[in-house]
């Protein structure tokens, strides 16, 4: 069940390529659906989620970590979709959350600046000068967002398995290249790779559940065993322990929770459905 994430500054070509791959393979093709799902599940406005994963953070947001909560919601929704397999996701930021997941093919589609400007002129019906400024601003937003939140550059080829320049090749050729790559043994799903993606999805789900109250909590999981680490004042430990257990109660896939709320004070409690 191949999984593909497609990143590209060209929204139109990114969407067309993703849709054609999905049609050829018989897979689901998703993009904005993730924002809509996260908005409904976590009861936050769609516009705030969209801005959180698109706009670079303001100085206030950097100081208050204002974007992290919304990004956590988006991440949980995306990974819970991807863990089911047979998905083609096209959009921004998705590739950041599946680094080191071996059976996910991470693709970057690039194009010439002039082609991107032409696309913007046609899409928004604006003159060349306006389109050029918008494309430059979009690139700046992407760089600032990735740098501020993840200390990465979305243009870095090391983030991807495949980088394709479509300036001189057709959309169909691009689709052929991606589908051909999916036939390689490395991108075949294995039990180990599937488990790794499920662990990451569970970690993201737990983080999204507690992030509104405990943004600084560190979450990890392995085979249904969840570890949550914090360093609260000693007087607040009992309350925070009760709060956290209430927030994550009912999350599917949790077998056991370990709360490390201070040095050498670990609470272990099995989770029952």
Automatic annotation (TrEMBL):
Q: Which Pfam families match?
A: Cytidylate_kin2 (PF13189)
What is the protein name given in its UniProt record? Phospholipid-binding protein
Q: Which organism is it from?
A: Desulfoluna limicola
């Amino acid at each position: 069940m191949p999984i593909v994430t497609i990143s590209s500054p060209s929204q139109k070509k990114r969407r067309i390529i993703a849709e054609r791959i999905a049609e050829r393979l018989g897979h689901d093709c998703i993009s904005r659906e993730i924002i809509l799902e996260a908005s409904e599940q976590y009861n936050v406005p769609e516009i705030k989620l969209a801005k959180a994963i698109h706009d670079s953070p303001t100085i206030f947001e950097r100081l208050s970590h204002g974007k992290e909560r919304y990004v956590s919601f988006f991440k949980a929704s995306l990974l819970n979709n991807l863990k089911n397999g047979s998905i083609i996701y096209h959009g921004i930021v998705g590739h950041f959350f599946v680094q080191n997941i071996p059976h996910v093919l991470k693709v970057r589609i690039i194009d010439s600046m002039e082609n991107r400007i032409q696309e913007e002129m046609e899409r928004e019906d604006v003159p060349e000068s306006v389109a050029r400024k918008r494309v430059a601003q979009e690139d700046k937003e992407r760089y600032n967002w990735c740098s501020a939140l993840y200390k990465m550059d979305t243009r870095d080829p090391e983030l991807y398995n495949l980088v394709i320049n479509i300036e001189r090749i057709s959309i169909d050729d691009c689709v052929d290249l991606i589908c051909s790559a999916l036939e390689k043994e490395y991108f075949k799903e294995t039990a180990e790779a599937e488990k790794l993606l499920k662990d990451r999805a569970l970690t993201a789900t737990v983080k999204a559940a507690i992030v509104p109250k405990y943004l600084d909590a560190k979450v990890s999981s392995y085979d249904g065993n969840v570890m949550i680490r914090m360093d609260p004042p000693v007087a607040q430990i009992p309350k925070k322990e009760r709060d956290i257990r209430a927030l994550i109660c009912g999350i599917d896939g949790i077998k056991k929770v370990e709360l490390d709320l201070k040095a050498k004070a670990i609470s272990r409690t099995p989770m029952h459905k």
